[in-house]
From TrEMBL:
Belongs to the cytochrome P450 family. It holds the Pfam family p450. CDD domains: CYP105-like. This is Cytochrome P450. InterPro entries: Cyt_P450, Cyt_P450_B, Cyt_P450_CS, Cyt_P450_sf. The keyword Repeat does not apply. Keywords: Heme, Iron, Metal-binding, Monooxygenase, Oxidoreductase. The keyword Ion transport does not apply. Residues 1-21 are annotated as: Disordered. Gene3D superfamilies: Cytochrome P450.
């Protein structure tokens, strides 16, 4: 069935996505929320997709059983990319019972009880990372390299079960893989693809080692290998799930740490309040997650039936892009949404998505961010930018927003 609603071509006219100003959403989002909250636009790669921009509509789409995350659907928004090989499918892009198998297998690693167990080691990691930063002889460093990158990749190496002696390789490959989000840099893209293959190969190697043991171990790779042994999943599923956890858990938390720090330094009065009252940190992290919505072009869906929403009908089999960044800046839900306010009650934001695919690692991400910002506020209250903001390079074309480097001093 073809669309009954004319596409919006006058405004915005360029194919979606539009470059993101460093911190705020593209200006088009507000226009769309006000004038065409559910609208069909041309997207990069010559396809069309329905953009959903209001908070209530995004929530409704993400909890609608007629909406699919399966990347094999003909209407799925691919932005011109070829379909991934069938045996490399990630559970992020699966529906129903198939998707549930992985959620059920992995959920216990991200409960509040699991977070309580990991907290002391995480605090120690943050402290030693900050010690190393403070020991930099120049008294100045790149915050991304010194803090934002190593903490999430080290934590992932613990929970997955990477050998201690392989951590340096793992952290480097995980960092290089992040460059796949920089569409503007073909060299980095090539290195990123090589790094992703290295990571897959490494996960495969440790999975095979575990499979040869009587007890495959209690970390995530061990648990997945045990599930393979029980006949629930295949060895390829073990590799795909380990790989998904790395790409979903690293880039996201790294960029959120770096952009969160940048944003706090740009709001010194709120940063000072966090230093005076550490109890504010939890709330501040939720507000930063909402305000920045770093993972802003990753939630991709398609309709399996006609869906009436926001006064229009999305026909079956068409691409849908629920814009969580737009929803998180919707004044109808978050009054004064374009302002950062660490006192705001923002926990119902969509920075982690919504519905069955809502981020499985959110408790871990929250804990990492809370410990990092609380420790920096306590130990390095003099932290400041060591470069003018206009010289910083932000990831304006990436599905996951961030800053390439963040020079700081203290
Ligand atoms: C600040 C950090 C993070 C942000 C902003 C974030 C954001 C998101 C979002 C928006 C989704 C939903 C995607 C969709 O609906 O299509 C998602 C899913 C996911 N995230 Fe995160 N994430 C973060 C950290 C993590 C961490 C630390 C892990 C694991 C170690 C993780 C693992 C995953 C996985 C496996 C999925 C797919 C879940 C599913 O399809 O059922 N994420 N994340």
């Amino acid at each position: 069935m073809t669309s009954t609603v004319p596409s919006v071509t006058e405004h915005p006219s360029a194919p979606f996505p539009w470059p993101r100003p460093p911190i705020d959403p593209p200006a088009e989002y507000q226009w769309l929320r006000q004038n065409a909250p559910v609208t069909r636009v041309e997207i990069f790669g010559g396809e069309y997709a329905w953009l959903v921009t209001r908070y209530d509509d995004v929530r409704s789409i993400l909890s609608d059983p007629r909406v699919s995350a399966d990347s094999r659907n003909p209407g799925y928004p691919r932005f011109g990319a070829p379909p991934e090989p069938e045996d490399q499918r990630l559970f992020l892009r699966m529906d129903g019972a198939e998707h549930e198998i992985f959620r059920n297998l992995l959920a216990k690693n991200f409960t509040l009880t699991a977070m309580k167990k990991i907290r002391p080691a995480l605090q120690e990691l943050v402290d030693t990372t900050i010690d190393a930063m403070l020991a930099t002889p120049e008294g100045q460093t790149d915050f991304v390299k010194a803090v934002a990158l190593p903490i999430p990749s080290t934590v992932l190496s613990w929970i997955l079960g990477v050998h201690a002696e392989d951590r340096a390789f793992f952290n480097k490959a995980a960092d290089e893989a992040l460059m796949a989000n920089d569409l503007t840099n073909p060299d980095a893209m090539g290195r990123a693809i090589a790094a992703m293959n290295d990571l897959r190969g490494y996960i495969r190697k440790i999975a095979n080692e575990r499979a040869a043991l009587d007890d495959p171990g209690d970390d995530i790779i061990g648990q997945l290998v045990a599930a393979e042994r029980a006949g629930t999943i295949t060895m390829m599923d073990v590799e795909n799930s380990g790989f998904l956890l790395i790409i979903a858990g690293h880039d996201t938390t790294t960029n959120m740490t770096a952009l969160g720090m940048y944003t706090l330094l740009q709001h010194p009065e709120q940063w000072a309040q966090m230093q005076e009252n550490p109890a504010l940190v939890r709330n501040a992290v939720e507000e930063l997650l909402r305000y920045l919505t770093v993972v802003h072009l990753v939630i991709l869906r398609s309709s399996t039936e006609d869906i009436e929403i926001g006064g229009v009908t999305i026909p079956a089999g068409e691409a849908i892009i629920p814009l969580n960044l737009s929803a998180n800046r919707d004044d109808a839900h978050f009054p004064g949404a374009d302002a950062l306010d660490i006192h705001r009650k923002a926990r119902d934001h969509f920075a982690f998505g919504y519905g069955v695919h809502q981020c499985i690692g959110q408790a871990l991400a929250r804990l990492e961010l809370q410990i990092i910002f609380e420790t920096l506020a306590r130990r390095v209250p003099t932290l400041k930018l060591a470069a003018p903001p206009e010289e910083l390079q932000f990831k304006v074309w990436s599905g996951i927003n961030g800053v390439f480097s963040l020079p700081v001093t203290w």
